[in-house]
Amino acid sequence: MVNQALNLAYELHGDPSDPIIVIIQGLGMPLTATPPELVEKLVKKGLCLLLVDNRDIGQSEKFDRTPPNIIWEAIKYQLGFKVKYLYKLDDMMNDINVLLVKLDIKYIHILGVSMGGMIAQSMAIHHPKKIKSLISIMSTTGNPKLPGPKWVVAKFILLGSRNKEIHDSSSFYHQLWKLIGSPKYPRSTEELNQFVRRIMGRGMTAGGSARQLLAILTSRNRCADLQSLTIPTLIIHGDEDNLVPVECGINTAESIKDSILWRIPGMGHDFPYELIDEFTDRISQHVLNVDKGH
Question: Which H or E element spans position 210?
Fold first, then answer.
């Protein structure tokens, strides 16, 4: 199934004459999932950030077809059977590429978080001349031999609103981030409140998240393609990630020649506020060093 590109909503922060980083968020997450403190600090480092809402989420164009039963499709995936889908990660990658053409942006650094990392990897594989560098955060190569989410996390996500302790979308995301957040850097209730208000205020849909999950389940193993990349790559992964285990980040680093792996003790599947300054320094140094070489 091949789909035409959908129109994406975006925000541009900083001076477009500075090095541009496209930031792609994860499953079901709008662009506001990117910590505003990180955005502000990277702009102060002399970078321009293009934040996008993936299709089906936030203020981007929505796909209006009802997804198939997500639990049944997940079971089929585990058993090795073909999964039904409404679009693929490569379609989401094409959305990004079309947006860059519309904005007349020829060269970028690309940063992807979780599912966004998978899309960013695909962008680097299919459009290497456009990509100055790749930053893959808490993501994976699609290698089927890698471990998946902890069962308690997978079960919680698949059951969704059918979880007995879930009363509304807000409580779902509160509970989810308690399961996948960083054990060493736990978020306070108020910090979680701010985060959930930020993402829900941008716009989220259960159908969009389900359709994106199906795109992940149908994604291919990118290891062989990643081995041919010569793009400077920074990989960031927490060693206590219950959603995308650290082995996935290690495999990404092993698949991309000369890549740099920053493995963070005690970090889960989120951005610890205590590490925002270090995130800023490592990302900006990676991007600016690459730009100096061009």
Answer: helix 206-217
